[in-house]
Amino acid sequence: IACAVVFGLGIWYFSGGGYATEYFAGYITEYSLSVDNLFIFVIIMSTFAVPAIHQHRVLLVGIVIALIMRGVFIAAGAALIANFSWAFYIFGAFLVALGIQQIRHQGADEEYQESAVLRSLRRVLPVADDYHGARLTVKIDGKRWVTPMLVVILAIGSADLVFALDSIPAIFGLTKEPYLVFAANAFALMGLRQLYFLIGGLLSRLVYLSIGLGVILGFIGVKLVLEALHTNELPFINGGQHVPVPTIGIGLSLSVIVAVLIITTAASLLKARKDPAADRTR
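Below the sequence we write its predicted structure tokens.
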């Protein structure tokens, strides 16, 4: 977190407050969305019974894989936005729908389900029953086996890929600079590993996290739609002319994101104090 803040201050010093505000808004948004990812990571670790001594390595390798895949997503998103301004309509509508879904499913049980890739891997490659230290493959009776370590690393990487489908469009709603988008994602993912061991056991107390994230996603979605209307070029909307609608500035966006996270966290902790039986796993 300290490195992310120092990086942001460096942007402020060398490039001005505008880019720095965009970076901090993007970083906070990505980090808050990553906290929700973290809950799934906890479930994956529990599902695969990963030994505590190997959890650092699993998270490190899984996050590196996730960062590479997000880099591909970011490059594709930047190219799409640069060539097709109407993409903001799609991103905006997608985020609003995701926000509504997050809020509607608040309190629902969260469980991990293997992706099709992992199911295919289990069918094609023999997976050993036990862990063999930090090794990804092992030879047993002359036959090469995949260890559960490799499976759980791929599980974390693929789970993050699913979450990237909402986080990448969200940050493009705050900044159009691919460099800032990647930097915010990189720092958010790097902080995720330490956060897992700091607050992994406390995540279940954030009972209203889904509502807060839903509000943030919906807000950014509306911001994107307004920007799309403001720069509209689609012929069937206002005759291809720009629609004179107000846009949401980055300063207001940052304020709303921070306020929603503070309110969500405070409300969750108050709820947990009054009703200790309430948590996200029940």
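The chain has a mean pLDDT of 82.
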